Amino acid sequence: QKEVEQDPGPLSVPEGAIVSLNCTYSNSAFQYFMWYRQYSRKGPELLMYTYSSGNKEDGRFTAQVDKSSKYISLFIRDSQPSDSATYLCAMSANTDKLIFGTGTRLQVFP
Amino acid sequence: GAVVSQHPSWVICKSGTSVKIECRSLDFQATTMFWYRQFPKQSLMLMATSNEGSKATYEQGVEKDKFLINHASLTLSTLTVTSAHPEDSSFYICSAQQGTSGRSGQFFGPGTRLTVL
What we know:
The complex is a heterodimer. By secondary structure, chain A is mainly β. Chain A contains no helices and eleven strands.
């Protein structure tokens, strides 16, 4: 079993839709949770960073962490074609090492 | 803020040659930098953790003599792929950590695409 599981997609939605991206994990020591966006042939860009459980909102993006269920989510409201990318979840315990999910490819069509 | 650059962005080389990739944190000091490789449609695989002024820590299965890492300053780390072979062709991405622990998150460079002929 992988430490972090993420549905690879692709996920295809119309412009304006609400997108839900999810990851599950097995290591209860994870405390820091991140979402990265990666465009094709580019490095990942940090979107959201959350410590422990709870919600965090930044513009159209909301990150949720449920440590009791070992489940994290990223919601994108009013999705735009420019949101089309691969979204990677990443997490760490109280160390420097990040464990990444495989990434979910999102396509937002006009 | 938190900008990381990589150079070159792409490189093509002949089998048996060595290639050096630079990673720079432009607007912050990074005591720790990380090197990843990514194959098409796959996630990032950590190769090594680089700490300024000390030897890099390599992940299991990564040959330290083949992937030489130097972290000579707080803003620069280099990865040298020695005696490159076609199977080393990949997308290499560095990241830099702002702050002294994983709590700050990592900021990634744009990546270097290496093609070995």
